[in-house]
C-alpha cells in the first residue's frame, strides 16, 4: 500500500514539475497546445487522434482548430515541436534562414547512418557547400537538359514494351523501376541491376510505412530500441543501412577503379573528382558523404516521385471524365507518332492541371520538415525558442476551402483560367527557399513525361467484377495509395520515338 502511495506521489510531483517548467517557458509568448504529460509528452494523444481522423495531417489540423492558432506546441518525447499550419505561417518558415537547421535526434542519426552529411538531413556550412556542389554538378552532366529528357524517354520505351499488351496490372511495380533507373543513370551512369533494384525497393517500401514525419516512437524514446528493437523499427533501419551501404559501396568502388580524371560522366565521377583533386576529404568530400548523397537521391525518387505518379494513375482510374479530357489533349498536342517531349508541356494546360490537382488532393508528403530553429525568433506574435523542432502541415493549405472550394474533390479545372494554366503560389510540393528540393527540375520533367507517355498509350479502366476503385491511403513517413488493380487497354499499336 505504501509503495502505491509513493508511486502516486511521484507521479503528482512529476506533473507539477512539468507544468511548472511549461509555465516558465510561457513567461514569453509561447504557442498554445495540449498539456505535455511526463515521459510521454503528447505522442500518445497524437497517435490516437491520427488513428481516429485518418492520418497525422488531419490530427494536426484538428489541434490547430482546437487551439484556434496556426501555430501550436507539442512535446514529442523530449523534443519541443512547433507545428505550423496555413499559407502565411508556412511561407514565413520556408523563407526565413533561422529555420534552415535540421534536428539530429536518434531516428535521423540512424537514417543518416550516424553521419551528419548529405543533402537532406544536414545543415550548416558543410550542407551549403555540398548543396552548391550538387547543383553545379547536375548542370555539368546534363541534369534536366536534353540528355536527361532523352534518358527518361528511353525508359518510357522500355516500360511500354514490357506492358505492351496491357491487361490487369498494378501500376507502382511498373513505374518504380523506371524512376530508380533514371536516377541511377544520373548518379552512376548505368541502369540498376534488376535483382538489386527489387530488393532495394522492397526495403524502402517497408521503411516508408514504418515511420511518420515526427520520427515515430524511436525518435521520441530512443531507449526503446533496447526493449523492443522490432516494434520500434530499430532492426529495420539497421538492416536498411547495411544493405544500402553494401549496394552503394560496390558501385563506388567500381567507379574508383575505372576513374579517369577529365572524363567524368555521372555524379559519382564528379564527386571523385572533387575528392581527389578538388576540396578533398578535409572539406567533407569523403566516401561517407557520397553514400548519404546517393541515399538522399534514391529515397526522394522512390518515396516521392514514384508515389506521386501512383496517385496520378489512381486519380485517372477514379475520374474517368478527367481521363477522357486528358486523352483529347494528348492526341491534339502530341498525337500518336512520337513520344511526349518536355517542350510539349507548355502546350498542355489540362495535363498540368491534373498533375497539380492530384498533388494537392493527395500530397505524398503532407507534413514537411522537420526543421531545427537556429536562433530565438518570432513567428506571428509567438516566441519560438532556439533548437525547437518545426513541422509544417501542407495539408492545412491544400484542404483550405477558402483557397480551394470543395477541397476533397478532384477538380483540375480549378487551376485553369481561359484555357491557360494558373500558377498557384500555395502549391509547395518541392519546398521553398534555400531548402527547396535541388532536384525539382528533374522531378517535374520525369512526372510529366512518364505520366503523359503511359497515358498516351493506354486507357486506365476499372477491373471488371472488382469493387470500384477509391482513394484508399496507407499512412507512414509518406502517404501512398493502397495497392490497386487497373485494366490497361492499349489505345494504339505503335509509338515511334523521336
Explain what the structure shows.
There is one protein chain. The termini are far apart. Helices cover 51% and strands 10% of the residues. Helix 7 packs antiparallel against helix 8 and helix 14 (287-318) packs across helix 16 (349-361). It has 498 residues and is of the alpha+beta class.
Structure described in brief:
By secondary structure, this protein is α+β, with helices and mostly antiparallel strands. Helices cover 51% and strands 10% of the residues. The longest helix has 32 residues, at 287-318.
Would you spell out the secondary-structure blueprint of this structure?
Blueprint: H1 2-25, H2 43-53, H3 56-66, E1 71-76, E2 79-85, H4 87-95, H5 106-111, H6 124-140, H7 146-162, E3 167-169, H8 172-188, H9 194-210, H10 216-220, H11 224-227, H12 234-258, H13 267-277, H14 287-318, H15 320-333, H16 349-361, E4 367-372, E5 377-379, E6 382-384, E7 389-393, H17 395-398, E8 416-417, E9 420-421, H18 440-457, E10 458-461, E11 473-474, E12 480-481, E13 486-490
Parallel strand pairs: 2-7
Antiparallel strand pairs: 1-2, 3-13, 4-7, 5-6, 8-9, 10-13, 11-12
